[in-house]
UniProtKB/TrEMBL annotation:
<feature type="compositionally biased region" description="Basic residues">
    <location>
        <begin position="160"/>
        <end position="179"/>
    </location>
</feature>
<dbReference type="InterPro" id="IPR020568">
    <property type="entry name" value="Ribosomal_Su5_D2-typ_SF"/>
</dbReference>
<keyword id="KW-0687">Ribonucleoprotein</keyword>
<protein>
    <recommendedName>
        <fullName>30S ribosomal protein S9</fullName>
    </recommendedName>
</protein>
<dbReference type="InterPro" id="IPR014721">
    <property type="entry name" value="Ribsml_uS5_D2-typ_fold_subgr"/>
</dbReference>
<dbReference type="GO" id="GO:0003723">
    <property type="term" value="F:RNA binding"/>
</dbReference>
<dbReference type="InterPro" id="IPR000754">
    <property type="entry name" value="Ribosomal_uS9"/>
</dbReference>
<dbReference type="GO" id="GO:0006412">
    <property type="term" value="P:translation"/>
</dbReference>
<dbReference type="GO" id="GO:0003735">
    <property type="term" value="F:structural constituent of ribosome"/>
</dbReference>
<dbReference type="InterPro" id="IPR023035">
    <property type="entry name" value="Ribosomal_uS9_bac/plastid"/>
</dbReference>
<dbReference type="GO" id="GO:0022627">
    <property type="term" value="C:cytosolic small ribosomal subunit"/>
</dbReference>
<dbReference type="InterPro" id="IPR020574">
    <property type="entry name" value="Ribosomal_uS9_CS"/>
</dbReference>
<keyword id="KW-0689">Ribosomal protein</keyword>
<dbReference type="GO" id="GO:0009536">
    <property type="term" value="C:plastid"/>
</dbReference>
<comment type="similarity">
    <text>Belongs to the universal ribosomal protein uS9 family.</text>
</comment>
<feature type="region of interest" description="Disordered">
    <location>
        <begin position="157"/>
        <end position="179"/>
    </location>
</feature>
<dbReference type="Pfam" id="PF00380">
    <property type="entry name" value="Ribosomal_S9"/>
</dbReference>
């Protein structure tokens, strides 16, 4: 097309060409070459700890958000200045929160201090679990494979579906009457 424009005298000099006039095939090949170089490089995970020896992780679930700090200790877990059992009275939530420690065989080796807000009890428990898993990964990158295999590093994207107009709830239709 550029050759045809030049023959007709409608094309600008090549120095005035914008990048949008360059064939897209050329640009995508350059980008693909760059991606191949980056894809072959192994991802090196580095231990991320602050000056106090704490690793930080953020967790979210539904509308709950948790900020978690993990550091070496005796296994004490503090949630919003309360102990784990006082803040989460249901055993299922407590088991859910300490699961990353049992998967990585690091139970009673770390203390956890976290703040969590928003959502309900179940969402907060899921947010704290994700935050603990991410903080453990930051503390020791060798713990990533068992955490990833157990699914503790994957954020649960599910949210409450919105109510639609004309329906009783998100999907429940009003009772249908034939006549």
């Amino acid at each position: 097309m550029l050759r045809r424009l030049r023959v007709l005298g409608l094309a600008r000099p090549s120095s005035a060409l914008s990048s949008s006039m360059v064939p897209s095939v050329v640009r995508t090949e350059e980008v693909d070459e760059k991606r191949d170089d980056d894809a072959n490089a192994p991802i090196v995970r580095v231990r991320t700890v602050d000056e106090l020896g704490r690793a930080y992780g953020t967790g979210r679930r539904k509308t709950a958000s948790a900020r978690v700090w993990v550091f070496e200790g005796t296994g004490k877990i503090t949630v919003n200045t309360k102990s784990l059992v006082d803040y989460f009275p249901r055993n299922a939530h407590c088991d859910d929160i300490v699961a990353p420690f049992f998967v990585t065989d690091t139970a009673a080796q770390f203390d956890v201090w976290c703040t969590v807000k928003g959502g309900g009890v179940s969402g907060q428990a899921g947010a704290v679990r994700l935050g603990i898993a991410r903080a453990l990964q930051n503390f020791n990158p060798d713990l990533r494979p068992p955490l990833k295999k157990a699914g503790f590093l994957t954020r649960d994207r599910r949210r409450v579906e919105r109510k639609k107009p004309g329906l009783v709830k998100a999907r429940k239709a009003p009772q249908w009457v034939k006549r």
